[in-house]
Every structure is written in C-alpha cells, then in structure tokens.
Amino acid sequence: MSTAPLTSIESLKVPEVMKALRLSRSKVYDLIRSRQLESFTIGRSRRIAADSLRTFMSERIEEAA
C-alpha cells in the first residue's frame, strides 16, 4: 500500500462536490447511497475523498466514450 504525503490528501464536503459536479444536494446523496461515490463521516459531517471524486468522474468519462 503506497502512502501519499499528508499534504496531497484532500477531502471535500458535500457542497464542494455539488459545485464540482454541478448537481443538487439530493443527487450527490443519491450517488453516495448507491455507492457510486465513496464517502466517509467524521462526526456528523459527510466527506468525499478527492481521489474518490476523480475516480467517479473518470469512470463516467470512460462510460461515455
């Protein structure tokens, strides 16, 4: 398992993912519930790893090609 430097690890809040994908809050949570977009919680805050968002987007691009 390779470990990324701590400075390159980034997590995003749901509103940041909404803005990046230009989707509604409910659609982002639908993607999380259906496990198409991986997430985790810290307390009551839902977070999405930036790598998970990149993977999600790459998969959608490949499907569209």
Q: Would you write up a description of this structure?
A:
With 65 residues, the chain is α+β, with helices and mostly antiparallel strands. The protein has three helices and three strands. A three-stranded antiparallel beta sheet has the order 1-3-2. It starts with 10 loop residues before the first strand and ends with a helix. The mean pLDDT is 90.
Helical content (DSSP H or I, runs of 4+)? 40-55%
Low-confidence stretches: none
Number of helices: 3
What can be said about the biggest beta sheet?
3 strands, antiparallel
Q: Specify Rg, calculated over alpha carbons.
A: 12 Å
Number of strands: 3
What class, by secondary structure content?
alpha+beta
Q: How far do the termini sit from each other?
A: 31 Å
Characterize the overall form.
globular
Strand order of the largest sheet: 1-3-2
